[in-house]
Specification:
The chain is 23% helix and 29% strand. Strand 6 and strand 7 form a beta hairpin. The protein has 8 helices and 20 strands.
Length: 294
């Protein structure tokens, strides 16, 4: 089972390596070996129809949590583990994401403007994201998840890379999942999580209720929580813009024994609904944002 582990002090890391910590996963000890810095693909193109209150005006990855887009929180999580080279797969209202990063320094800094015929701008602030590299890729309005990933692969030369969705947060140890992925050698590793419980449960004997359980804190079943590690061999399982990653490709990977699960028992929460958006903002405002490790 995965357990949150503290990362080694960033100041002593070599510049081109991130570090996995010592922890046990599925009975295997991962020993803190260096893992190379990897590119991060984030799917940002969906329409977010279940969050229409917000996504009518902006793409879901740009919905605010604590005054910053949820996409920023996801990227900060990866950056905490040393992975700062991002490929964002744009689609619905992708121009909002392009504008955000094009004007990032302007929107996060104190500035002085010199007006006139030769205008000048002086920035008075720095930020921790100055070493981020962000590639913005138009992957189409109607393209499905597998198709978006397929379009992003031309920007990846390395054998392994990271991928996740633009609407989920976690405190999972990214580098431990990379170490786990390399131990088993499969095509893909997903982070398996227990979702928050949505419904209570009943046991009945005939017409009589014998056990009543209020909505559990989290479900017992595991689901795909994103935060995947993939090998470029995933390209063999993708077949165009209509390809839904979570259907044909993952089903085939499963039959081939090439899809592995890194089980994370800590915090994970997606943002599919307005209620879930409110919950994440409440956690942030209360200082209880478990995903904030930076």
């Amino acid at each position: 089972m995965a357990a949150p582990c503290a990362a080694i002090n960033q100041e002593v890391r070599p510049p081109d390596y991130a570090w996995a910590c010592h922890c046990w996963v599925g009975g295997i000890l991962f020993t803190g070996e260096a893992v190379g810095i990897m590119k991060v693909v984030i799917l940002c193109g969906g329409k977010g129809t279940r969050l229409r209150e917000e996504t009518e005006f902006r793409p879901k990855p740009m919905v605010s949590i604590g005054g910053r887009p949820i996409l920023w929180h996801i990227m900060k999580t990866y950056a905490h583990f040393g992975h700062k080279d991002f490929i964002l797969c744009l689609g619905y209202k992708g121009e909002y994401i392009k504008d955000y990063f094009r004007n990032y320094h302007w929107n996060t800094s104190d500035v002085t403007l010199q007006l006139g015929r030769t205008p000048r701008i002086n920035y008075h602030s720095t930020h921790d994201e100055e070493d981020w590299r962000v590639t913005l890729v138009d992957t189409g309005l109607e393209t499905q998840t597998g198709g978006r990933l397929q379009r992003a692969l031309r920007f990846i030369e390395e054998d392994d890379f990271l991928m996740t969705y633009g609407d989920g947060l976690t405190d999972s140890n990214i580098n431990a999942s990379i170490d786990f992925h390399r131990q088993h050698g499969g095509v893909a590793t997903l982070t398996a999580v227990h979702p928050q419980g949505r419904f209570g449960g009943l046991l009945v004997d005939g017409p009589t209720v014998t056990n009543f359980q209020e909505k559990p804190e989290r479900e017992q079943n595991l689901i795909n929580g994103g935060f995947l590690v993939m090998n470029r061999r995933i390209a063999e399982y993708l077949d165009g813009d209509a390809c839904v990653l979570e259907r044909g490709p993952m089903e085939t990977l499963t039959r081939d024994g090439q899809l592995k699960a890194y089980v994370h028992n800590g915090f994970w929460q997606c943002m599919d609904t307005y209620r879930e958006m409110e919950q994440l903002n409440q956690l942030w405002d209360a200082g209880k944002a478990a995903w904030k490790r930076w």
